[in-house]
Specification:
It contains seven helices and two strands; from the N terminus they run αααααααββ. By secondary structure, it is an all-alpha fold. The chain has a two-stranded antiparallel ribbon. The protein is extended. Helix content is 56%, strand content 2%. Among the domains are: 55 residues; 44 residues. The longest helix has 34 residues.
Length: 174
């Protein structure tokens, strides 16, 4: 069986050759400059003069008032925000170093696990270092005669279970 195409009765069909002509016509259009820019784009274009005005001692309020007199109505807080964003973008373009990224939840958990392992291993390492230092001072025979130091156990987290429990009759069971 031939597949049935379901099209709307009002659908218009376009030939492939017409699409090719339209594509070529769109690609041949000249570049046209934007007549209106957003405030963010305006601050990006005026970045250097704004920085110079700030370096001369003018505040964001003063610069916003000057821009408003020229027809660019912008709040001082917006000006500051757009300028800092522009600074970050310029800095990112100029440096080849990757930008700083936030750690994901799994990375945080892995870092915490490494810290816990370090807490557990540190006393054992300290005891091992102590034994090594004794062996250097007294010789290998001194280690055999001295008892081994047991590593300290790290403090356990959470509620500790008691060895004695109270029964319903009031007696303590062990």
């Amino acid at each position: 069986m031939a597949p049935i195409s379901r099209t709307s009765p009002n659908a218009r069909l376009v030939e492939k050759s017409i699409i090719d002509y339209a594509s070529n016509a769109l690609q041949d259009l000249p570049t046209r400059a934007k007549e209106q820019l957003s405030l963010r784009e305006a601050v990006e274009i005026l970045h250097e003069p704004i920085i110079e005005a700030l370096n001369k001692g003018y505040s964001y309020e003063d610069i916003a008032a000057t821009l408003a007199a020229q027809g660019i109505a912008i709040a001082p807080s917006s000006l500051k925000h757009y300028l800092s964003r522009s600074n970050r973008q310029r800095k990112a373009k100029s440096s080849d170093t990757p930008t700083r990224r936030r750690r994901t939840a799994t990375q945080k958990i892995e870092d915490e696990d490494e810290d816990e392992v370090e807490e557990i291993q540190a006393p054992a390492r300290a005891a091992n270092n102590k034994v090594t230092a004794i062996s250097r001072r007294r010789g290998a025979e001194a280690i055999e005669s001295e008892p081994e130091a047991e590593p300290e156990q790290p403090a356990r987290r959470g509620r500790q279970r008691s060895t004695t429990t109270q029964t319903r009759s009031g007696r303590k069971a062990t």
